[in-house]
Amino acid sequence: MNLDIPEGKDPIAYVWGEMVPGIGVAAANFSLAVYSHTTLGLREFEAARLRIAQINGCMFCMDWRTERDGQKVEEGFLDAVTQWRTTDAFDDRTRLAAEYAERYALDHHGLDEEFWSRMTAHYSQVEIAELSMCIGSWLAFGRLNHVLGLDAMCVLPKF
């Protein structure tokens, strides 16, 4: 579906800020908080974010790379995320972040004791809660932008 966006309006700002300002502004603030206040390492953050982008099919999200202190993940990281099960480019935390993102999006009922045992061996409860909120944000808002046809011109709105 493609929403009717008035000529001259930025599609993201219009949909998120003008069409549904009571919801969109709050959603944008949550989305921005995920990037501004995360304590997760860049590689695990990006592994989870990019796995959700792949599942959502969000074109912008797959092209975007989060930058922290002038650092971004290496070229080819997206390909490693695609191959998260077998790549030698990931440590255990990064691999688990990609796995958790995939299972959160596609099989959340299948998150069993074996998975949680592996997860809690590498992540604290605080980190798991944070990663869950990040994944939830990317799943919801990346999917929203893709479903509404906004992802070809997606930028993080600032309200």
Task: Tell me what you see in this structure.
The protein is 62% helix and 0% strand. With 159 residues, the chain is mainly α. It has a domain at 40-148: AhpD-like (Up-down Bundle). It starts with 10 loop residues before the first helix and ends in a 12-residue tail after the last helix. The mean pLDDT is 91.
Instruction: Kindly report how far apart the N and C termini lie.
Output: 25 Å
Principal-axes shape call: globular
- The total of beta strands comes to 0
What would you call the structural class? mainly alpha
Q: Mind describing the biggest β-sheet? A: none
Portion in beta strands? under 5%
User: How do the SSEs run, as a string of H and E?
Assistant: HHHHHHHH
Q: Considering the protein shown, what is the CATH homologous superfamily of the domain at 40-148?
A: AhpD-like
Fraction of residues in helix: 55-70%
> Do you know the CATH topology of the domain at 40-148?
AhpD-like
Mean pLDDT: 91
Q: Count of DSSP helices?
A: 8
What is the C-alpha radius of gyration, as a whole number of Å? 16 Å
Low-confidence runs of at least 5 consecutive residues: none
Keywords: Oxidoreductase, Peroxidase
Organism: Lentzea atacamensis
Domain Carboxymuconolactone decarboxylase-like: 28-102
Protein name: AhpD family alkylhydroperoxidase
